[in-house]
Amino acid sequence: MRKTVLAAAIALLTGAGLAAAQQAPAMHEAHLNQFDTNNDGGVSKEEYRVFMTGSFARLDGNGDGVLSQTETAEVLTPQQFAAIDANGDGHASRDEFLDQVMRDFAAADRGGDGHLK
User: Fold this and answer.
1) DSSP per residue over 23-66, as a string?
2) In 10 A of CB 96, how many CB atoms?
3) What's the CATH code of the domain at 21?
4) Which helix (H) or strand (E) is 116 found in, with range?
5) Were 43 and a residue from 35, 69, 70, 102 both cysteine, which residue would form a disulfide, CB within 3.0 to 4.6 Å?
6) 45-74: per-residue pLDDT in tens?
7) 68-74 contacts: CB < 8 A, separation 24 or more?
8) Whole-angstrom Cα distance, residue 90 to residue 92?
9) Structural domain range at position 8
10) Count of domains in the chain?
C-alpha cells in the first residue's frame, strides 16, 4: 500500500494518471529529476519533504488545512486515502499526509542514507 501511495503522489505531481501510478510504484529517473532541486543526481529527504508539502497545498483545494477524499479522488483510491487518514476521521491532515509520504520515502530509500538515487 505504501508504494502505491508514493506512486499516486508522484503521479499527481508529474501529471501522470492514477492508473499509471498504480502500475508503476517505483520512482523513475524523470521523477527524481523533478524532486532534485539542487541537481546532485539524487533526492534528499528534505527535497522530498519540501516537494510533498507543496503537493499537500495543491491538493487542498478549499484551503482548509485537511484533505478530503473528494479533493484526492483523482489521484488516490479510497484505500490509498484510508492509508493516509491515520486516525480514520475522514480527513487527512497535513501531518498525516507528510507522515505517510515520508514513510514511503524511507521505504524507497533502499540504501538507508536519506537519499533516493
Assistant:
1) H--S--HHHHHHH-TT-SSSEEHHHHHHHHHHHHHHH-TT-SSE
2) 19
3) 1.10.238
4) strand 115-116
5) 35
6) 999 999 999 999 999 999 999 999 999 999
7) 74/12, 74/18
8) 7
9) 2-110
10) 1
Report d(CA 35, CA 15) in Å as an integer: 14
Q: Quick check: is 116 in a domain? A: no
Q: Kindly give, in sequence order, each residue whose CB lies less than 8 Å from that of residue 44, ignoring residues fewer than 6 positions away.
A: 38, 114, 115
Q: Are 16 and 23 in contact (CB under 8 A)?
A: no
Give the position of cell 501511495. 5
User: Which regions in the chain score pLDDT beneath 70?
Assistant: 1-33
Indicate the DSSP class of residue 75.
T
78, exposed or middle or buried, with CB in 10 Å at 0-12, 13-18, 19+? exposed
Indicate the length of the chain as a whole number.
117
Judge whether 18 lies within some domain.
Answer: yes
- How much is the mean pLDDT over the chain? 79
